[in-house]
Every structure is written in C-alpha cells, then in structure tokens.
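Database export, one record per block. Field names are fixed; values are copied verbatim from the stored entry.
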Amino acid sequence: PRPAARSQVADVLRIEPPGEDPIELRMSGFHFVGEGQRLMTHPGLERFEHDGAARWVYRFDTPIGVVRVVKSLEVADGHNGCALRYDVAGGEGVGWVLELTPLVGLRDVHELETGAGLGERLVSRELATPEGRPGVLVAGRDGHLGVHLSTDAGRFEVRAREWGPVEYVWEKRRGLDGEERLWSPGTFVCGSERGD
C-alpha cells in the first residue's frame, strides 16, 4: 500500500489591529458534511502557480488594506518529505498570528477514513527536531506508519481532536467516496507584533 500521511492543513491568519477586533482570514476551503453552499474555488485565491513548487497566492481586502498571503509547497524530490511556507505582505505596522493545524489520515492513499475513533487508532506527542525546533510525531498505534511535523518559526500547541466529516465535493462528483474524518494533533502558531 501507498500511505497518505499528512492530508491537509487548516490555515488561518489573524490580523490584530490595535484597539479593534481581530480580522480572521482563512486560506483553507473545507466542506463539512451537512453544510450549506459549497464554493468550488476560494474567493480570495488570486492565482495558482507551479514551477517546481506549488504556490497559491491569496488576496484579502480588509479594513486595514490589502493583505496578500503566498502559500508554497515544495516536495523533496526522491525523499519522503515536503516543506510548506507562508509569506504574508500588507497590514504594515499591525500584528498578526498564523495558525497552521495539520490534518492527518495515516491511511492508504486510495482509502478514506470514515469511522470515528481516530484518537484510538492514532497517537501523537510533542517531539522537537534534533536542531531543537518545535514538532510533533503522529503514529498509528500499530507502529507501522508515522509522520513527524515541525516548524522553524513559532511554537506547537497540543489541541488533539478529530475533524469532520470533511466532504470532498470534486471526488463525489466523479462518483468516488467523498467523506472522511481526519485527526489533528494540535496547531503550529507563529506571529509578528509589527506586521513584518
């Protein structure tokens, strides 16, 4: 079998204007079973690029001006790993917090996790990298599959829980299974107080 380890990332940018309510900008477009309208594209997505790395460019018009977020995914050729990077521009002089919640399946690539109880099948614990960067290890209790996630900025907060059921609209339209439950070990949090 070919395992699928990290499935998705729920990514939220919170801009914190002084003396005002935070502005929440979501890059993830999850559809949960039973929700109403399902957008097929993200309204803030300006463009998608692929030049060796996959790159999503988002534009958000906010009360403090235009904020752009570039999310880049680079897969390590010939290795079992990838790097996900976020670049934030705009909102000069305003603090922000980026929260990245990895969603893990640890399943065969052709199967979806439909049953409840992922917390019984998966185990997670904080595990820093050898260089001391914050990280988390998620593994199957059977010991066969696992994934180590880490960051070079910020911290990891344990917030273990199940997500879902998530609905994959495109898969359902193609006549395939389109619902799945995912596991999150917690959230990576980083930010800037000055908007840099």
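Remark 1: The radius of gyration is 18 Å.
Remark 2: DSSP finds two helices and twelve strands in the chain.
End of record.
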